[in-house]
Specification:
The chain is of the alpha/beta class. The chain has 13 helices and 15 strands. It has helices at about 15-20, 40-50, 65-80, 95-105, 120-130, 150-155, 180-195, 250-265, 270-280, 285-305, 325-330, 360-365, 365-370, and strands at about 30, 90-95, 115-120, 135-140, 140-145, 145-150, 160-170, 195-200, 225-230, 245, 310, 315-320, 335, 335-340, 350-355.
C-alpha cells in the first residue's frame, strides 16, 4: 500500500518501547508523563454527576460549550492580561497536542519551516512534519547548570522559508523556562521576519524556585501574532479527560476550529463540563502541585550528585547526559526515555527522567539503583 511521503521522518517516542520492556512492580517509572499527583477536587465529582445527564451524550457544540470557552478566556486573561472572545477566538480541543496539530494544519503549507528549540517534545516535532512543515532547530545552551534560550541560535535558525516559531515554557522535556528578555527576543524576531508564534502553554504554571510567570502577550504586537495551545493535562493533571484549547486571532481560530471538527468532531462532553468546573474552582492545588514537583526534582538532584544533570526550572522532567542505554537503566530498575528524535544533536546526548509519577521516597532510591 502507498505510504505518504510525510511519514518518512515521523518516528516513535521511544516511550512505548521502554514501557513495554518494564518487568516487575519495583521499577521506577520515569519514562512517561503519567502522574500520581491528586486531581483537582471538582474533576471526578463533576464528571460522575454529569454522566446521567442527556447533554453529556451530545455531539454539540463541536467547538466546545460556551461556558467552558468563557472559563478559558478568564483563565488566559488572569495569566496574560489578554481577553479573548469566547465565541470567536477560542475553540475547545481533545487535548493540547490536538490543538497544536489543528493550528499547524490551518497555517502551514508543505515546505514551510517552523523553528523549535533543541531539545523539545518529540510530539511537537512530528506534528510539524504531519502538517507538511519542516522542523528547524535552535539549540538550547546550558548556562549556570540550567537550560537557557540562545538568542543567537534562535536568530540563525530563521530563513526566508520560516513562517512560525513554536515555543513552550516550561519546555518539555528540558524544563527550560523563558524569561522576559527571552520573550522580548521572540517578539522582536516575529515582528522583524513577519512570523507567527505558536505558543504551547501546557506547562506555563509549573515554574520552580519562585520564578515569575511571564509570556509572549506582554510584548507589543504579539497578540495579533500569537496562537495559544492550552491544556488541562499538566497543571490540572487531568490527563485522561483530554481537554485542550486554541486561543488567538479569530481568523486563525476559525480555520483551526474547522480542522478540529473534521478531525475529531468534538471533545467529550463530560470532560468539558469537568474542565469548566475546575477552571472556575479554587486554584490553590496548582501551587501545591508545583511545590511537590519541585521537591521531586530536588530529590533526584540530591540522589545523583555526580551525574551530568541539567537542572529544570519547571515542568515534569529533567535531562541526564549519559551513555547509558534504556536497557542498562532497566537492568538497574529504572525506566527512562532516550532522547533521539526529541530535537537534534543536543537532545541525542540526553536521557529523560520524568518525576511526576514517583514520590520522593522512591526517587531517593536512584542513588542505590544507579550506583
Amino acid at each position: 500500500m502507498k505510504r505518504a511521503a510525510r511519514m518518512q521522518d515521523v518516528a516513535g517516542f521511544g516511550i512505548d518501547r521502554v514501557a513495554d520492556a518494564v518487568v516487575g512492580a519495583d521499577v521506577l517509572r520515569l519514562e512517561n508523563l503519567d502522574t500520581d499527583l491528586p486531581l483537582p477536587p471538582e474533576a471526578v465529582e463533576v464528571t460522575r454527576a454529569a454522566l446521567e445527564e442527556p447533554v453529556s451524550n451530545s455531539w454539540l457544540p463541536f467547538t466546545g460549550d460556551l461556558g467552558l470557552r468563557a472559563a478559558i478566556s478568564d483563565h488566559i486573561a488572569a495569566r496574560h492580561g489578554r481577553v479573548y472572545d469566547p465565541r470567536s477566538q477560542i475553540v475547545v480541543t481533545c487535548g493540547g497536542c490536538e490543538a497544536v496539530l489543528d493550528i499547524l494544519l490551518a497555517t502551514i503549507d508543505p515546505g514551510d519551516e517552523v523553528v523549535l528549540t533543541d531539545p523539545i517534545y518529540a510530539g511537537l516535532v512530528n506534528r510539524v512534519r504531519l502538517a507538511g512543515g519542516v522542523p528547524v532547530f535552535a539549540p538550547l545552551v546550558v548556562d549556570g547548570g540550567e537550560w537557557r534560550l540562545d538568542h543567537d541560535a534562535l536568530r540563525a535558525a530563521i530563513s526566508p522559508r520560516t513562517v512560525a516559531l513554536l515555543m513552550m515554557s516550561p519546555s518539555m522535556p528540558s524544563g527550560c523556562v523563558l524569561d522576559r528578555s527571552d520573550w522580548a527576543e521572540v517578539a522582536r524576531l516575529c515582528l522583524e521576519h513577519d512570523l507567527f508564534l505558536l505558543y504551547d502553554a501546557a506547562m506555563e504554571a509549573l515554574v520552580f524556585d519562585g520564578r515569575e510567570l511571564c509570556g509572549p502577550l506582554e510584548h507589543e504586537g504579539m497578540a495579533e501574532r500569537t496562537v495559544i495551545a492550552g491544556s488541562m493535562s499538566k497543571a490540572y493533571r487531568m490527563i485522561g479527560w483530554r481537554v485542550g484549547w486554541i486561543a488567538g486571532p479569530a481568523s486563525v481560530v476559525s480555520d483551526a476550529g474547522w480542522v478540529h471538527v473534521y478531525n475529531t468532531t468534538g471533545a467529550v462532553s463530560v470532560a468539558r463540563r469537568a474542565a469548566e468546573a475546575v477552571l472556575r474552582g479554587p486554584q490553590d492545588h496548582v501551587a501545591e502541585c508545583v511545590a511537590e514537583l519541585q521537591r521531586r526534582r530536588d530529590t533526584i538532584l540530591d540522589a545523583l550528585p555526580g551525574w551530568r544533570i541539567v537542572k529544570p526550572a519547571g515542568g515534569w522532567s529533567l535531562l541526564v547526559e549519559t551513555d547509558m542505554t534504556p536497557e542498562a537503566f532497566l537492568a538497574a530498575g529504572v525506566a527512562a526515555t532516550p532522547m533521539a528524535g526529541w530535537g537534534d544533536s543536543v537532545a541525542a546526548k540526553y536521557t529523560r527522567f520524568v518525576f511526576a509519577t514517583e514520590p520522593p521516597a522512591r526517587l531517593a532510591t536512584l542513588a542505590t539503583r544507579l550506583s
